Amino acid sequence: MILATAAPAGAASRAPTGKDARAWSALVVEAEAAQMAGDWRRLEQATRRRAAIEERTYGPEAPITAASWSWIGQALVHRGRDAEAEPYFRKALAVDRGALGAAHPQTLIAMSNLAALFERQGRFAEAEPLRRELHDAGRSLFGASSAAAAAGAVALGDVLRALGRATEAEPLYRAALEIDTRVAGEADPRVAADLGALAAALDDLGRHAEAEPLHRRALALRRQAFGERDAATAQAYARIAANLDAQGRHVQAEPLHRLALATDQELRGRSHPATAADAAALGANLTAQGKSDEAQVLLREALAIRRKVLGERHADTGASYGALADALASSGQRRKAEGLHRRALEITRAARGERTPATATLYAGLAGDLVAQGRHAQAEPLLLKALEIRRATLGERHPDTGRAYDALAEAQHRQAANTGAEQMSARAVAIVRARRAADRLAVGSGPDAALRRARAGEDSVADGRPTFRRYLTVAWDASQQTPGELPRLQNAAFTAAQDLNISPAARALAETTARAALGKTATARDARVRQALAGQVRELEGQLVQALPQNDPGEAARIGGALDAVGRELASLDARLSRDNPRYAETVSPPALSIPQAQARLRTGEGLLLIVPAGEDVHVFAISRNRAAWNRITRGQADLERRIRTLRCQVDDSACSGRRTAAGESQATFDGQVAFGVYRDLIAPLEPALAGVDRLYVTSSGALAGLPLALLPTRDPGGVPDALAHASWLADRYALTTLPSVASLRASAHSRRGPETRWSFVGYGDPTLKGASPDRRLADPKALAMAFGPLPGTADELRAMARTLGAPQASLRLGGRATEAALKSSPDLAAARVVAIATHGLLSREIGGVDEPGLVLTPPARATSQDDGVLTASEAAALDLSADWVILSACNTAAADGTPGADSLSGLARAFLYAGARALLVSHWRVYDDATAALTVQTLAIQRANPRLTKSQALQRAMRAVRTGRLPTGGPLPGWRPEWSHPAYWAPFVLIAAEG
After folding, report:
1. Contact present, 439 and 386 (Cβ < 8 Å)
2. Which one in 90, 230, 700, 725 has a CA-CA gap of 20 to 30 Å to 980?
């Protein structure tokens, strides 16, 4: 803005009188003083009097008069009177453009004033041509690489973003970032603003993982430049919180939202539009967390501020109506939500137009209200509008476009239009898969791209689950309506079920398989280092997010520096791995297999069972080399989980009573009829597809993965006396292998060992423990020694394994030699083909002081980071293994928490897969030493005596021996007791492998 102090050359018809000239000069001085003092009322009054003199002297078309009109407009703006300011800005721009030309600095200031007013009022379509003209003028006057050109690009980008055209805004922000970094340096506040704007545009485009590191850098720069209590810093907090919300990380986002709100309340006041925006964002965050009551309070406050300050027809007021409607909808108040969604839609359409993402979101919200009220036919046209707008403005691959397809699929499905619903749902599935692939295979050689690749899938897996669940539902119903489509739908559902069932264990096995395929090479070592660093990324990011609202910039900077260092190292490793093995990235994240692809990996006599809970239903797929079948247990998940809990209590009464059955006590009665019911409902309908199969891979998740299928009877026991001794078990029909994912089935070539190395062995067990108080903290080695009793039977078990494998006694580390330090530093561990650890197993938080699962070893005299007596899952993951067998002869080494969507395996089992184990033998519950010793030893003995048997077949025969007391040779099993026929004794162990 300029303040003219003299008449322009050639202006107006007469010179001012002496009185007017003196008055005018005095008013100029008064206006300048008022401006400096921020006294906008006084500035307005002085400038109005000055403008009257200028208009009388020079005329209304004079630039000097226009300059005063601009100042009057500015004074009105600062007093919150935009509507009164607009005609002054319009007059000033018209005069300046006509008298001075479009490129004159005073004209550009007038243009900027009017554009900013339009933007405050949400009139972005009117602001766009002005910002374009300003952008072009800045480039023309100052150069395409000037700071002015960068500022113009950012301002135009902001308008385009507000119009829902983030695709056009992105290159403008990138250009501004490049210019400002070069001109002002990487630490300049302008660079922070550019980074924040670019990151916000990427969020608009659904590229949240790509945006996150830019938000972090913008925040760090603003904290450094402006401090913690600054409006710009508050905006950066708000933006990174919104990014976390978009990734589903609402708990992490909440404290950042609260910090932004508190800062703006303090600095700008409780009635400022920015404060309202913060309150609205926090309210939406709480809605997403199910805290509807607290959310509604904040959302009503934001709405009240916006109605008062911005007006009823402002776009932000419409957004507040929509957010409050969402909160009401989440609490079941759909009729009230409907009215507010309609009001929000009316305002937003008027303020922003029909074809904007904000309008599409409100169409979708209103449609959701109608669907919830059973008014599906009314909802469908609204959803079609939302879909059309999102496809046009966001593109086919945007996550919001996918959600529109998904919502439309639900509405059509509820109207029994299952063919159309399946087509819509299939498109939603394709979008989720494309987004996952975009993160996993992110292009770029820099640290940000490397970090994005490293954490790919962790959040997008959870975000995509509702889409895959929906597809399974509509595809099944479509297959019932159109049986001729069954082969196609069954295959599509099979792949969707795999995408729904992605787990950390599956990723660990895929990474191990990829690493093993590289052999003992430098590339394999790079792959292992990359695995370790990738595991640190999300942990560091979580620490950083927690540190941000703690008002400790030093700690945040330290963690941010560590994350940047990891990113640089990952970028270097990715470059080498891509050069040495171009298919490495694809190998570590294999796509879901189609039915023909899975069949091609099966061998004669092999089959596959995929069990996937999906909402209230359970879907089961059975595949053999030449057959496939699919069944849905409609609304059966809750009942199946109830029956599984019943059976778990009967094989592991500590899971229900907290007390393990002691030696000499009778085991709880096993309800064979309940177990048979699970078999009848889950497996029997599909067994025709498994004709000729005697080796079965099983992939499952949630509570359904917590019960080994081996203990399911295949005939109804019907209350027959001594039923356990005469039961027909699934373990007799099939040799079972737990497969973390379908895609991991024979994902690499079979590794053949020479006879001299195949059975090389190392064993750890019988740690020196005293037993007593289980409530003492494990951080104290003395307390650890007292918390668990000795396990002399494990020494006998390991010695028997060594004898069976022909291994020397020196291969054993027993008693005081069975230490964590010895295991970690053993030179034999990496080369051993059979690794056995026989001891106490811990679940996460089972004992105070240990927050992850682990294995108890002999405690040291003094705890150190290398040895505190517990080999935790994270420490196990750091081991270097290449074993064909890892036997964890301990309690609960396979057990996970069984919650919906949870991993099917414990962190301990996953850790050993990550460390390089080719196959694991692990337990689902607390095991009995003598029966366990018999089972593990017999499994190894049977496979060694019959090299053509698979691991699963050896385990199958060992289970039968423990259950019946008869060895495969027909002789008696030493030490056998009749109670071993109970599944609690012979069924806890499962084999986990990619090849049975």
Report:
1. no
2. 700
Tokens 């399911």 found at: 712
User: What strands lie across the sheet with 854-856, from one edge to the other?
Assistant: 841-842, 854-856, 870-872
Helix 189-204 to helix 166-184 angle (10° resolution) is 160
Percent of residues, the chain, with pLDDT higher than 70 = 90
Q: How far is CA 11 from CA 65, 461, 463, in A?
A: 10, 69, 66
Helix spans in 375-521 (H): 376-393, 399-414, 418-440, 447-454, 458-481, 486-500, 504-517
Task: Enter the tokens of residue 291.
Answer: 């805290």
What 3-state DSSP class applies to 216?
Answer: helix
| Strands 919-923 and 989-993, sheet pairing | antiparallel
Beta strands in 828-880, from DSSP E residues, in sequence order: 834-838, 841-842, 854-856, 870-872
CA 264 to CA 234: how far, in whole Å? 7
Closest CA to 43 of 74, 17, 12: 74
| pLDDT grade for 457, boundaries at 50, 70 and 90 | low
Closest CA to 283 of 301, 262, 299, 306: 299
Q: Report the half-sphere exposure of 739 (CA within 13 A, side-chain side).
A: 27
Could you tell me whether strands 854-856 and 841-842 are parallel, antiparallel, or unpaired per DSSP bridges? antiparallel
Average pLDDT of the residues of the chain: 88
For 582-618, the pLDDT digits (tens) are 777 777 778 899 999 999 999 999 999 999 999 999 9
User: pLDDT tier at 898 (50, 70, 90 boundaries)?
Assistant: very low
pLDDT in tens, 703-726: 888 889 999 999 988 766 567 778
Give the pLDDT band (50/70/90) at residue 462. low
Look at residue 157 and tell me whether its pLDDT is greater than 80: yes
Tokens linked to 646: 């019943």
The residue behind tokens 């695995």 is 531
Considering only CA atoms, which of 342, 339, 337, 315 is closest in space to residue 326? Answer: 337
Backbone phi, psi, residue 910, to 5°: -60, -40
Q: Which among 112, 73, 76 has a CA at the least distance from the CA of 91?
A: 73
* 179 vs 347: CA distance, rounded Å: 38
d(CA 884, CA 875): 20
Q: pLDDT tens across 466-494, in order? A: 999 999 999 999 999 999 999 999 999 99
